[in-house]
Write a structure and sequence with these properties.
mainly alpha; Glycosyltransferase; 387 residues; three-stranded antiparallel beta sheet
């Protein structure tokens, strides 16, 4: 495998194709913020603004400005997006809405904890890029709210009847593993260490199940036991694989090689579990016992699942030199570049059917924005350069 050539491939795709697409097509020059509903060529097909995608794009351009190159256009994009979020994204007390109209009027209430987590990430990186203390304060205040909501992320918008079958979900502890490292410079060291320990414990001791051969489940009962119902059997291989590179980063940060090993092995197991042996690619959702899933889109192949797998595998190889990681990286690399990359227009497709054919030819929507593709290209490029 030619690491040098691969590094160049990921770098060129990021800098010459994907980032120019978002800079040019997604910025709302009139009202601020970003459009994310972009068709194959980058035309806007809906002007609603989704807070977590706004936060992700602010984070993306701030992070690249901080870590790759001090490009003014990246900083300008991040600041204008951050200002739009600061002004319209929350209710005045940093409860972040889910979505807004183009002008910034609230459309959907702050039921979604990920609006908060990505606002935290956005303002954390933006504060580093600009040295602006106000941005750092917004990140800290929002992070406090996130931690206060850990036991009931949806708050008063939770539609589950309390007490009958209260489940804990994997997504929040997983995202906190990444978030804590993201905004580490803004946090008190003792507090930071405690937060990280709790997150690692949740991910690696509660949702990772030895009795299932080391698979990661999406939902458990509040006491940590498995629940045999559709939600309890719900599996999301891409989610688990993504979480494992967050854990590897923490293992590196904390100098815990055994944690890195465990995360790498888990990523490989989840990839083996989720791989579609008939058509290639990784399933979106699965049922632990092989029953029909409640999600009709279970067999679709999604961009983020494959891109996050690329990061986990190349990072696993970088940190442990396990040859299985390299085999998986190559397999997923070939699938991803063949099926998700649009050969005629910039940016990548997001949604394929089981056979790997394009299902929706959009480049951005309600859930796909300027995040997984550029972050994945950046991560793989950086790691491949070290190899």
């Amino acid at each position: 495998m030619d690491f040098k050539q691969l590094a160049e491939q990921y770098k060129t795709e990021l800098l010459d194709s994907v980032l120019p697409f978002w800079l040019e097509k997604s910025q709302d020059k009139e009202f601020g913020g970003f459009f994310t509903c972009l068709d194959r060529e980058g035309n806007v097909f809906d002007t609603d603004k989704f807070i977590w995608l706004q936060g992700r794009e602010v984070w993306m351009f701030s992070m690249l400005y901080n870590k790759v190159e001090k490009r003014q256009e990246w900083l300008d994009a991040a600041i204008q997006g951050g200002e739009f979020l600061k002004k319209y994204g929350h209710d005045g007390n940093y409860n972040w809405y889910f979505s807004l109209t183009r002008e910034g009027k609230p459309l959907v209430e702050p039921y979604n904890i990920f609006s908060y987590t990505f606002a935290t990430m956005a303002f954390g990186q933006l504060s580093i890029a600009t040295g602006n203390k106000e941005y750092a304060e917004i990140a800290k205040k929002t992070f406090d709210i996130v931690l206060s909501k850990v036991d009931n992320p949806k708050g008063k918008w939770n539609k589950i009847h309390p007490g009958t079958r209260s489940l804990k979900n994997f997504a929040l502890p997983m995202i906190l593993c990444n978030l804590a490292l993201e905004i580490e410079p803004l946090l008190d060291e003792e507090f930071m260490k405690k937060t990280i320990d709790v997150c690692i414990h949740e991910v690696m001791d509660v949702f990772l199940r030895p009795e299932l051969g080391g698979l990661v489940v999406e939902n458990v009962a509040e006491d940590g036991s498995l629940v045999d119902c559709m939600d309890g059997r719900h599996m999301n291989p891409g989610h688990a694989i993504e979480a494992m590179w967050f854990i590897m980063d923490l293992g590196k940060r904390l100098n815990r090689p055994e944690l890195i090993e465990k995360a790498k092995d888990t990523a490989i197991r989840m990839a083996e579990y989720g791989w579609d042996k008939e058509h290639g690619g990784i399933f979106y959702f699965m049922d632990l016992k092989g029953h029909p899933t409640q999600e009709l889109e279970w067999d679709q192949k999604l961009w983020w699942v494959h891109i996050e797998t690329l990061i986990s595998m190349i990072k696993g190889y970088q940190l442990t030199k396990d040859p299985r990681c390299l085999e998986w990286f190559e397999r997923v690399h070939n699938y991803t570049w063949e099926h998700f990359k649009d050969q005629e227009h910039p940016e990548w497709f997001g949604y394929l059917n089981r056979q790997g054919e394009v299902l929706l030819n959009l480049k951005g929507g309600k859930w796909k924005g300027c995040f997984h593709v550029p972050r994945g290209l950046y991560q793989c490029w950086q790691i491949l350069e070290t190899l």
